[in-house]
Design goal:
Rossmann fold, 7 helices, single chain, alpha/beta, five-stranded antiparallel β-sheet
Length: 232
């Protein structure tokens, strides 16, 4: 599902280059649950942005579902994201002027999907918010907003779900509900799940963990699918 080859990210900081992510090889097969862990500034969110095509690598290639996304123009990249990738953010990123139902409809309307209204209501039911579709984000709790964000991410049945600290802005009860929902989605749909977390308990539920520090995988990362600088 995901294949990174010598992918790195360097930016300019104070007139000097700053490498956020050092060259990394990563293979995530279909249906796997990968947890990416590490302290703040370790490169976790940068890695997710590169996989999602929200940012371009300085070096290397990113392949998602067999497509080299680093070779795509913006229009093609947007289409692939709409079809193949669902992204869940820590701070929800819902459109405040749209209702919950309308937020879920957005990716389907962009894709021109038929039966979008019925599908949006089904997703509301799936995340346990059947009667909340007419509410605006400001009228929903944090946990409810995150469930709407997950429903939106699932709108076009993507085979890949990327979640950046999806429980980090929630209390423990809502956090557990959101995690259970993501795991249920993975099991029922056979989706590939990449989840960024600071919580070792959550990471321990994953099939594989990738531990990052200072933009590099730790030597004791318990995975056979990750290497730095092309070493395997």
């Amino acid at each position: 599902m995901i294949a990174l080859s010598a992918v790195s990210k360097t930016v300019q900081s104070g007139g000097h280059p700053l490498t956020i992510l050092h060259p990394l090889d990563l293979d995530v097969p279909d249906g796997q649950f990968l947890a990416v862990v590490g302290p703040s500034g370790s490169g976790k969110s940068t890695l997710m942005g590169l996989i999602a095509g929200l940012d371009a690598p300085t070096t290397g290639r990113v392949r998602v579902a067999g497509v080299d996304i680093t070779a795509l123009d913006e229009d093609s990249l947007a289409r692939l994201r709409g079809e193949k990738i669902g992204v869940v953010f820590q701070f929800f990123h819902l459109v405040p002027s749209l209702t919950a139902l309308e937020n879920i409809l957005v990716p389907m309307e962009i894709a021109g999907r038929r039966g979008a209204g019925r599908r949006a209501q089904e997703l509301l039911d799936e995340v346990g918010l059947h009667d909340r579709g007419h509410h605006y984000p400001s009228q929903l709790s944090g946990g409810e907003q995150q469930r709407i964000a997950i429903a939106r991410a699932l709108a076009n049945d993507p085979p890949l779900i990327l979640a950046d600290e999806p429980t980090g802005n929630l209390d423990s009860t809502n956090g557990h509900h959101i995690l259970d929902l993501l795991l249920q989605v993975k099991r029922s749909r056979g989706a590939t799940l990449v989840l960024i977390t600071h919580d070792p308990g959550i990471a321990g539920l994953a099939d594989v963990q990738l531990s990052l520090r200072d933009g590099r995988p730790l030597d004791d990362t318990t995975t056979a699918c990750v290497s730095a600088g092309g070493r395997r």
